[in-house]
Amino acid sequence: MSNLTLTYQYQTKITQAIIRAAVLMLEYGAESKLIEQTTKRMGKALGVKSVEISLIPSAIVLTTLSNTNQSVTTTRQAHHKPINMSIVYDVQRLCIDLEKFELGAEKTILLLKQIKPNYYNKWLIIFMIGLSCASFAYLRGADWPAFAVTFVASSIAMFIRQQLAKHKFILIITFATTAFFATLIASLASQVSSTANIALSASVLLLVPGFPFINSFLDAVKGYLSMGWGRWMQATLLTLATSMGIIFAMAVLNMKGW
Amino acid sequence: MQDVIIKYILDAIFAAIPAVGFAMVFNVPKFALKFCALGGAIVYTLRSIFMDLGIYIEISTFLASLLFGTLAVYWSRKYIVPRPIYTVAAIIPLIPGTYAFNAVITLVEMNTNGVTPEHISLFIEDGLKAVSILGAISFGLALPSLYFIRYNRPII
User: Which keywords annotate this record (chain A) (predicted)?
Assistant: First the structure.
């Protein structure tokens, strides 16, 4: 049993490796159940008896217990970053690899440091999001001029959103500004189309915080109530910010309602 | 009959586009994009079929995401991919964004223009719709994995 000779230093290394993986998953938008499962599996694979984890939206507390009940506890802050599924996927893959091969804690930390997102081309995303919102408009029964206006409005909005994100504005400001410009541009639809209100409402759909909303429900039904509330709050704030942007734009245009 | 099938196919294509578009924003790995597209088309078509059968939108959404959630568990075991990677992007076409924005806009309008009974009923209607559809989506997605939680072992 190698576990009996687990030194305090090595257990600390193991704990560092596990919490690094957990923080990555929390920051980039994994649901709580996945974070807990992954840390427990990594702990088992690295040779500690158990891993206990406590999650709140802004931090993680994690304890590892060895066979001799020697325990190491550590806390890390988590900062909210844009959702990134490729990082979550890579961490999960690493966890599965750990179970298959004996990598050791140092190697695991090294591999975690190497995890980098593979971003898609910026212009491709702008085009796809424009097309996505236009598709939403189509699904609601917009005519082709409204389809085109939605495409232009949400493409430009996505460009603005990316620029603001690049300059590290917080999400609330980004969402409000983006919604403002999206609504301004989409209001042009009233000149060319009879379904202008669909263009107006579809062009801001790129700002729907679907991920936090779904994650918050999933967390809550699986027993992580505080995480669920935290994510619900975050999603509500983003919805509020978007609505403020829309309202400002409607005030500028002197419009009423969608 | 043919018209109906063509309409379903067109709708499925236009539902698959946003699933892929949003998957790219979430930076889903490239190989998983096809699951997102297929998933988006499947859930949207399922929901339209249920709604055309005369079932309420909430129940239709729940059934569609329940079926998709089951399929997602199967996929994730077969291809060893964690489910959130493609499930959340795939259900994007179902998310009640307009209802949510409408509710908040009404709320702010009540603050500026004064509260009227129409405003209150609009706010409650839109808010309830948004929350219940969201709940239907997430319960549908979560139920298959809750079924597996009782063994207390990971799905992949």
Answer: Cell membrane, Membrane, Transmembrane, Transmembrane helix
Q: Tell me, what's the ipTM?
A: 0.87
pTM: 0.88
Asked if the structure places residue A258 within a domain, the reply is no
Interface of A with B in 140-169 (CB under 8 A): none
Could you read off the pLDDT of A54-103 as tens digits, one per residue? 999 899 999 999 888 889 999 999 988 888 899 999 999 899 888 888 88
- CA nearest to B140 within chain A: A218
- Once rounded to an integer, what is the mean pLDDT over residues B35-52? 93
Report whether pLDDT(B77) > 80.
yes
- Specify the number of domains making up chain B: 1
Burial class (CB in 10 A: 0-12, 13-18, 19+), A251: exposed
B contact residues 46-75, partner A, Cβ 8 Å cutoff: none
- Residue B156 inside a domain? The answer is no
CA distances from A250 to A179, A243, B85, B110, B126 (A): 11, 10, 36, 15, 19
